[in-house]
Structures are given as C-alpha cells and as structure tokens.
Amino acid sequence: MAVAHEFKYYRPTRLKEALDLLSSLHDEARLLAGGTDLAVYIKEGLVQPRHVLDIKHIRELEKIKVQADGLFIGANATFSDILDNASIKKSYLLLWEAARSVASVGIRNRATLVGNICSAVPSLDSAPTLLCYEAVVQLMSSKGERTVPISKWFLAPRKTAARPDEIVLGVSLNKPAEKHAGCYLKLGRYEGEDLAQAGLGVLMNDKQEVKLAWCAVGPVPTRSLQIEKLLRGKALTPALIRKSKALVPSEISPITDIRSSQAYRIHMCQIMLERGLQACADRLSGKKVDTLKILGG
Length: 297
Description:
Layout: E1 8-10, H1 15-24, E2 29-32, H2 38-43, E3 51-54, E4 64-67, E5 70-74, H3 79-83, H4 86-91, H5 93-100, H6 105-108, H7 113-119, H8 126-132, E6 136-141, E7 144-149, E8 154-156, E9 159-160, E10 167-174, E11 180-187, E12 198-205, E13 210-215, E14 222-223, H9 225-231, H10 238-251, H11 262-284
Parallel strand pairs: 1-3, 2-3
Antiparallel strand pairs: 4-5, 5-10, 6-7, 6-10, 8-9, 11-12, 12-13, 13-14
C-alpha cells in the first residue's frame, strides 16, 4: 500500500516513556496497538496524524487479571487472548461470546478490546458486554490516573471521553455476585467477517434481574433501561416477553444504511431480545445453548 501521508513513528517500551511523549506531542498523536482500525483510517484518509505512538511493546499494558472480585483487561490484550482464557469463558461468558464474534481469527489475533472501545464505532461488539458488566475504563496521563464508567465513555460515533494526553491502561469488570448467565447475539449479513447490523448483550441472574445493551442501532452503544425495569423481579413469561418486545422501538434509534434498513433492524432486534432472554433463562436452568446458532449464523 502507498504511504497515505508522512508521520513520525515512535516505539516506546515503557509506560512512562509513552506518557511523556504523548504529553509533549499535545493532540497531534495517535496511539497504535493492534492497528486494525487505525491503519485503515490512515489509508482512507480519515485521520492524518503527525505522530504515531506504537504502544504494543509496552509490557505493562499486556495483562489480563482474573481475580475473585473481578476482571482486568489490559490495553494490549487481544480478543484472541480473551478467547484463550478459560477463566473468562467460565465466569464472563458474555464477554467471551462477544470476543468470538469479532471479525476473523487473523483480526482477533491483532485487535484489542481497548482499541475497540477507543475506536468507538457504533457497531463495536465489545460495548454491549462492557455495558452489561458496568465496566470502568482506567486511564493515565503524565498528570495522574482517572477512571470513566463505560456508560459515560461513548460520546458520539468515534468520539470517547479520553483526553488527547491519556493512555487507556485497561478495563475493569466486576464479577456478578449472584448465579447468572449471559449471552451475546450478533446480527450479520452473512457468516464470517462482517460488522454487526445489530448486537445485543444480555446478562441475567437468578433474582430475575436483567441487563440489556445494544450496539449498531444508535449513534453510541446503550443500555435498555426501560426494558430492564419492566423485567426486574418478574418471572420470564410469553406475555412479559411480548411487552418487552413492544418497547424495543423506543429503546433504540437505528438508521438505514448499506448493511440494513431501519425497519429490518427494529424487527430483528425484537427477535434478538426474545431469543436472548430465552437463551439466558435456559442457561440459568442448566441447558447448553450456542448463541452463534440462535440467529442462524
């Protein structure tokens, strides 16, 4: 590929070195981890950074920590790293299933979860999962550290709450205390590598509490708070599911684009909601359900 434009490339190996560089370069630098989005943006002229900081060689950002009270995923942890972690599959199945749905094996070997949320495209598969787990984004600049709840992270398409001088260290998820089940449903045009026409994360516990979050059906990923309120504390029945599906059009704001029409997205989101709720209820009861097959994928 021809060079789209010239930029200065940096390859720090320590976090402090990267933070000092970022501080000195002001807002003229872009961070490179997996590069699966940034390389495309540069090639297509969507961004033209004067400086590129390659942070994938910073070992301090590689960690995945599974602890008794939660999970931490470092900035350089790839989707393949998530899929290879047996503890994540056991305790955070919703996250594991979302990782499994991302693009292709080759992309998952490079793409990072943190890079996914920093790209902040409306169809990103990791967002519904993180919203359901009420994750917290951990950031650092040369001035210190701060945290941002994932519910306040996405400001607009491709825009986040990160500041130009900050590096995302990773994302923290609290482990659900109750017996729970989760699933991720992704609607695509075909089997294989494709962006979501719609994505739904469902997290349910044995106290009839449900968390629901969408991607690709609005400018930013979002929780379905009205439907969650309707479902809270109630046994899942056909009548309750019908009422929940009736609320879907008021909870999402899809557009018509090259991948799908608005009407089709709304209709399929209602179907996804019903099947996702049933899949979680079945899993809570001990049944095995492969959500890749729920929508015919």
